[in-house]
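For reproducibility, we list the full input for the aspartic acid complex.
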Amino acid sequence: MRQFAQEQGRRPSITLPRRAMPAYKAATLQKGLPMSFPHRHLLGIEPLSPPDITAILDRADFYADLNRQADKHNDVLAGMTQINMFFENSTRTQASFEIAGKRLGADVMNMAMQASSIKKGETLIDTALTLNAMHPDLLVVRHPQSGAVDLLAQKVNCAVLNAGDGRHEHPTQALLDALTIRRAKGRLHRLSIAICGDIAHSRVARSNIMLLGKMENRIRLIGPPTLMPSQIGEFGVEVFDDMAEGLKDVDVVMMLRLQKERMDGGFIPSEREYYHRYGLDAEKLAHAKPDAIVMHPGPMNRGVEIDGTLADDINRSVIQDQVEMGVAVRMAAMDLLAQNIRNARAA
Ligand code: ASP
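The corresponding predicted structure, in tokenized form, follows.
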């Protein structure tokens, strides 16, 4: 099996050990019995408690198993309408939300925001109100401005899921990262986790710092001082500008993309120099624990923040697992929010 998967260039599933789900829990999930998730929207990690995070991850474990079956369908969103509004380009997040909604039986619509009325001058709020009048149940929104998704959520009647807003939050990315870590390491607490690179411009880093901190992990941020946020002292993390020092004995190495589209000046001397000092390769990874896993949210700049061969190394990199867990986490989040919608309607 492992050899077959390797020949196919895929990561063998056995390299991602996971705890078996207790039968009672699987049965509970299958029957759709309520697991409490006291939120109307998923706007960020900030408002979530550790039990909220665990509720999403436990349910996502169930969907990760379902997604490996021949029949991946479930009907928890049957009759519901999901609209995906991406005001910023996306490949994996949009595809992942679309697949997740379809597997759960929702009617899914992708709005082509590039060609939309926004281009004709309509405000975000007017667009949201127009869509709201069509009675969607779930709105999945990505927007280049921090806070735009929260604002929109205040104007509509349906559940809103933040698929990334500016530098603010990307909650489903942090949740899928957490699920990947939990399945690879067997736990999501007391781990030493390094988040490396362009922290200042990264909503992925922000959501991950909050989630991993809430779950009581030790977080190290590594990168050039020019790419560290100014209020870094408030995060309760350790900061390093040297990879060898920062990676020492960590369990997880999370690399970030150099977000050039959010930079307006000379944050780094050159990509070559950046790769030399901060790009992850086998030599730098040798400072981490021998079983440390390598992560990247994608899209990757190979040869800038990570060596391409290491990114493809199925013994160290869990990058493809992150994509797989992304669908499961989005199914779980939409399932829990839909249950709240149903409960509110029944009340
Ligand atoms: N895909 C992630 C995001 O939307 C990370 C990245 O773009 O670098 O934030």
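The chain has two domains: 41-169+324-342, 171-320. Confidence is low (pLDDT under 50) at residues 1-28. Both points were considered when choosing residues for closer inspection.
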